[in-house]
Amino acid sequence: FITLSVSTFVPKPFTPFQWHPMESLKEVKERLNMIKKGLSREKGVRVLHDVPKYAYLQGLFSIGSRKTAMMIEDMAAGRTAFLQQVISGREQGSYVFRKKDRAEIFPWDFIDIGISKEQLWEEYRLATGI
């Protein structure tokens, strides 16, 4: 028996992929369906995956700014309009779906982790072929 576990890419701070966008929720769902459909005829293969809208929220919370904190407060107060937009896929112009420029200033840039932003960019460039 084989279990294939598939996760949605989520960019994280202090990594070379902090500049990289997430795929749209629609695209992620289509790719997951393609994988599941492609393997559905194989005996003994099970496909597990995360929930794309939760992966998006993880991305938003991990690379977000003060604006993200306000969204969390709104969600906690029961004002769920933003969450409904995420669930329905209307929040496509968001920060996590946008490719960032090399000169982008991130909310965490003031923290010294011992690796320069230039080193991270070089790793990103090498990984993506930019």
Radius of gyration (CA) equals 17 Å
Strand order of the largest sheet: 1-2
Task: Give the overall silhouette.
Answer: globular
Query: Helices and strands, in N-to-C order?
Result: EHEHHHH
Q: Give the biggest beta sheet.
A: 2 strands, parallel
Q: Helix content range of the residues, please? A: 40-55%
| Count of separate DSSP helical elements | 5
In short:
The chain contains five helices and two strands. It is mostly helical and 130 residues long. The mean pLDDT is 86.
Task: Describe this structure as you would to a colleague.
The chain has five helices and two strands, in the order E-H-E-H-H-H-H. The longest helix is centred in the first third of the chain and has 15 residues, at 25-39. Helix 1 links the parallel strand 1 (2-6) and strand 2 (45-49). The protein has helices spanning 25-39, 52-63, 66-76, 81-88, 117-128; strands at residues 2-6, 45-49. Strands 1-2 form a two-stranded parallel ribbon. The mean pLDDT is 86. It is mainly alpha-helical. Helices cover 45% and strands 8% of the residues.
Helices and strands in order:
Layout (H helix, E strand, L loop, with lengths): L1 E5 L18 H15 L5 E5 L2 H12 L2 H11 L4 H8 L28 H12 L2
Parallel strand pairs: 1-2
